[in-house]
Design goal:
This protein is an alpha+beta fold. It has helices at 14-22, 64-80, and strands at residues 2-9, 29-34, 55-62, 86-92.
């Protein structure tokens, strides 16, 4: 099992959740109003007067074979909209309940 953590510009809203569902991943957790700033480029997303944009985040635990398919789809989404900001990380799941 793998955990995929995805942080993305709020403009994506349902698009990321729909991406997961379209690939057959039913389970996920969503956080809204997530602030942050990327390490490479882009503007901060802090929900303030100066930086009004915010991020959302999703965590989903998936089968190993599905992780690469999701990451491929996320890369395609990010490549199509570089200015919005999207980051994703795949982590091993050692144990679950």
């Amino acid at each position: 099992m793998k955990a995929i953590f995805i942080s993305y510009n709020q403009a994506y809203n349902q698009e990321i959740v729909e991406l997961l569902e379209n690939l057959g991943q039913r389970g996920y957790t969503v956080w809204t109003e997530v602030g942050g700033r990327g390490t490479v480029d882009g503007e901060p997303h802090l929900g303030s007067h100066a930086w009004p944009t915010q991020n959302h985040a999703v965590l989903s635990v998936v089968e190993d074979t599905l992780a690469s398919k999701i990451m491929k789809a996320l890369r395609e989404t990010d490549d199509a909209n570089k200015d919005l900001g999207l980051r994703a990380y795949v982590l091993p799941v050692e144990e679950s309940l």
